[in-house]
Design a protein that fits this description.
Chain B: This is F-box domain-containing protein. The complex is a heterodimer of chains A (about 200) and B (about 500). Chain A is α+β, with helices and mostly antiparallel strands and about 200 residues long. Chain A has a single domain, classed as Potassium Channel Kv1.1, Chain A, CATH 3.30.710.10. Chain A is about 45% helix and about 10% strand. Chain A is built from 9 helices and 4 strands, in the order βββααβααααααα. In chain A, strands 1, 2, 3 and 4 form a 4-stranded mixed sheet that branches. The termini of chain A are far apart. In chain A, about 35% of the residues are buried. In chain B, strands 1-2-5-6-7-8-9-10-11-12-13-14-15 form a 13-stranded parallel sheet. In chain B, strands 3-4 form a two-stranded antiparallel sheet. The longest helix of chain B has 14 residues. Chain B is α/β, with parallel strands linked by helices and about 500 residues long. Chain B folds into 3 domains: about 80 residues, no CATH class; about 90 residues, no CATH class; about 300 residues, Leucine-rich repeat, LRR (right-handed beta-alpha superhelix) (Alpha-Beta Horseshoe), CATH 3.80.10.10. The chains are: A alpha+beta (about 200), B alpha/beta (about 500). Chains A and B meet through α3, α6, α7, α8 and α9 of A and α6, α7 and α8 of B.
């Protein structure tokens, strides 16, 4: 487990749990198990997830929102569904201390908030989790890609983009179009000219 | 989160047979329907059920093992993804696939163009054509080579390709018909674009790709193009000037950050040109004070030019001299290069016909490496002078040099600090000659001898084998036949045809 210092308590606190209803928006961030700060993320289909504040900071989008003081009440994420958010939250927890984003965090550090977040190399276990994370079908992969696109979390982006690149690695142009649902917007002449340019115009 | 009301179901049904269906003709309709609904419909699990039921009567769990995004927007799955994310995906693809990824659609073409960093231009019209296609498609290039496109293609190409010094030229199909031959050689000199055309192309390139780091071009007499590049591309570090002349070096001082420079004055068989002389070298020395690497290929010049470079370019660490035409005595100028670490001589017919008295030669104080490749080492006096100048050298690499016999190689024993020595493809040197020199190199740690046919394993004396045992690293393959066999192993070649003529 890559979580450096949080102890066994943190590994269980993030299971899906309905958040306390009727909390006033001005309440300070919740204290989760082990006394860590947590925030609540609310998916588009009204599912709520408690996330360790520091894990949520992996996402640049969430970090901006937290820094703007939106982290007090449940944070609505209307374009993510519950199942996707559950997967992403689990990935955040596993990527705790990942140098890919922890370095970035050190730069924007305020008030020694992240001082116990020493970057550490992803272990084999985390890599295994990452592989498992993206061994899904195409539609599910695109759900994750869109989530990564929205949340802007480096680890999530790396994992999902690598998987998408691997998926199209040995495809023809037509297969790639079909896979991504893209429409060929070239005229036949344009496409022929493009193919030819590779031969004579440059290397 | 303000709760919006779910859109009424009939709207969904109306959307289903719309144009996106065309793209998914082969797939069941439910797929289309499922792509179409927008945010409000799938606001809650309950509505999702309804939508799924409407789409094809399937339970939601069946369709979404992992859950779906709510904002599926038409069939294009990449539409909601940012350029940055798509760039991440595309940058993971190997480069031949990246090139064909541009054929997928216009957006991908634009994105793939942004990923491309280096390019060799083959057709000038791709650069200065009506829509500036090169810079429009590849705005983030940092390495551009426009030399091949600067050579005018033949009127009727013969299909014969002539390659000299890294440049390939198509030959005119009737080059034999010239009577008398236009140049002393068999082949007429290649023709280049006009200075105007080159200037115009450089202007477009400089304005379109301001982040250039390396540029290879054919120099022209006019200053305009190079000045434009110097003005726009402030981060340019590397420049290669082909068919360079003294005059074309005048704007060189405008490149304030230039660190690596290659000048090609003449290439035998392609063009002779006025070339670069002491004048050009002096302009260069005063203009590029931050130069770290310099390569002079086919350049003239003498002691004056080399010493000017040594005096002015204080950061110069690497000097490569290819096929030089320099006047006698040039080598004495090398000692002014106080920081020179690597000196390479490549393809030189002579080192220095008259190096002058040894007392005036001096030495390069910081020299570490000396490379001699494809040089004719037939003049003992000049070779001796070279080793004197490089007396402090630590690594010596001699590769495919002619005329290096025991007597010539004996001069290398004046270098006392040699730690690494590599000898390849020198067939005149014998084991005895090698032993006499390396036994005087007390610091030698690493030795490599490859393809030197005069050296025989059975000639290795006990003294020499004791010397070998002291080395940290030894590669001893003087027999080129054994080298050939190792490189052929597994290919089925080099077996004397035995397996073809075997009787069954």
């Amino acid at each position: 487990m890559s979580s450096g210092d949080s102890g066994p308590s943190s590994s269980k606190q993030l299971v899906q749990q309905p958040a306390a209803a009727g909390r006033s928006p001005n309440q300070p961030p919740l204290l989760g198990a082990g006394g860590r700060k947590v925030i609540v993320l609310k998916s588009g289909d009204e599912e709520e997830f408690e996330v360790d504040l520091l894990d949520a900071m992996q996402s640049r989008t969430l970090r901006r929102a937290i820094e703007d003081g939106c982290g007090d009440g449940p944070m609505p994420l209307p374009n993510l569904t519950g199942p996707v958010l559950a997967k992403v939250v689990e990935l955040f927890r596993r990527h705790r201390g990942d140098p890919r984003w922890a370095d970035e965090l050190q730069e924007t550090e305020k008030e020694g908030m992240f001082k116990d977040y020493a970057p550490q190399k992803p272990t084999a276990e985390v890599k295994g989790f990452d592989r498992e994370f993206v061994s899904v079908d195409r539609d599910a992969l695109f759900d994750l890609l869109r989530a990564a696109n929205f949340l802007e979390a480096p680890g999530l982006l790396d994992v999902t983009c690598d998987a998408a690149a691997d998926a199209v690695m040995n495809m023809t142009v037509e297969e790639v179009r079909e896979y991504f649902g893209l429409v060929n917007d070239y005229t036949p002449e344009e496409e022929a000219a493009l193919r030819k340019q590779h031969e004579w115009a440059f290397q | 989160m303000p709760s919006r009301r779910p859109a009424p179901l009939p709207q969904l049904k109306k959307a289903a047979p719309g144009w996106p269906g065309l793209w998914f003709r082969e797939k069941p309709l439910k797929h289309v329907v499922f792509k179409m609904p927008l945010d409000p419909i799938l606001r809650s699990p309950k509505h999702r059920d309804v939508a799924a039921a409407a789409a094809g009567g399937l339970a939601p769990g069946h369709l979404h093992g992992h859950g779906r995004l709510l904002a599926a927007d038409g069939p294009d799955l990449t539409a909601p993804l940012s350029d940055e994310l798509l760039l991440r995906i595309l940058s993971q693809l190997p480069s031949p696939l990246q090139a064909s990824a541009g054929l997928v659609c216009r957006r991908w073409l634009r994105l793939v163009g942004r990923l491309r960093r280096s390019l060799t231009l083959l057709d000038w019209s791709f650069l200065d054509g009506p829509s500036n296609r090169l810079v429009a498609r590849f705005p983030e290039l940092d390495e551009v080579d426009i030399v091949p496109a600067s050579i005018t293609p033949p009127v009727c190409p013969s299909g014969v390709l002539l390659t000299r010094g890294g440049v390939s030229v198509q030959l005119e199909s009737e080059f034999e018909a010239f009577d008398p031959p236009p140049s002393p050689g068999l082949i007429p000199e290649c023709r280049f674009l006009t200075p105007d055309a080159v200037d115009r192309g450089l202007e477009i390139l400089a304005e379109g790709c301001p982040s250039l780091r390396k540029l290879s071009l054919v120099a022209v007499a006019s200053e305009f193009g190079l000045m434009k590049v110097a003005d726009e591309c402030l981060t340019l570090l590397e420049l290669e000037l082909h068919r360079c002349t003294d005059q074309s070096l005048r704007p060189i001082s405008a490149f304030s950050n230039l660190q690596v420079l290659k000048l090609v004055g003449a290439v035998e068989g392609l063009y002779s040109g006025p070339g670069v002389t002491d004048i050009g070298l002096t302009i260069l020395a005063h203009g590029c004070k931050r130069l770290v690497k310099l390569e002079l290929s086919g350049c003239e010049g003498s002691y004056d030019g080399i010493s000017a470079i040594g005096r002015c370019c204080l950061m110069l660490e690497e000097l490569t001299i290819c096929d030089h035409r320099m006047d006698e005595g040039w080598m004495a100028g090398l000692s002014y290069c106080g920081n020179l670490k690597t000196l390479s001589l490549v393809g030189c017919r002579r080192i220095d016909t008259d190096p002058g008295p040894t007392a005036y030669l001096g030495t390069c104080p910081a020299i570490e490496e000396l490379h001699l490749q494809r040089c004719q080492l037939r003049d003992k006096r000049s070779l001796n002078a070279l080793f004197l100048v490089c007396e402090a050298v630590r690594d010596i690499v001699i590769q495919d040099c002619w005329g290096l016999d025991n007597d010539m190689f004996g001069t290398a024993s004046i270098c006392r600090r040699v730690k690494f020595f590599s000898l390849e493809g020198c067939s005149l040197l014998t084991t005895e000659g090698l032993e006499s020199v390396i036994s005087s190199w007390q610091d030698l740690q690493s030795l490599r001898v490859v393809s030197c046919n005069r050296m025989k394993d059975n000639e290795v004396t006990p003294a020499l084998s004791y010397l070998f045992s002291l080395l940290k690293e030894l590669q001893w393959r003087p027999d080129s036949r054994s080298v050939l066999l190792t490189s052929l192993s597994g290919t089925g070649m080099g077996k004397k045809g035995g397996r073809f003529f075997k009787r069954s």
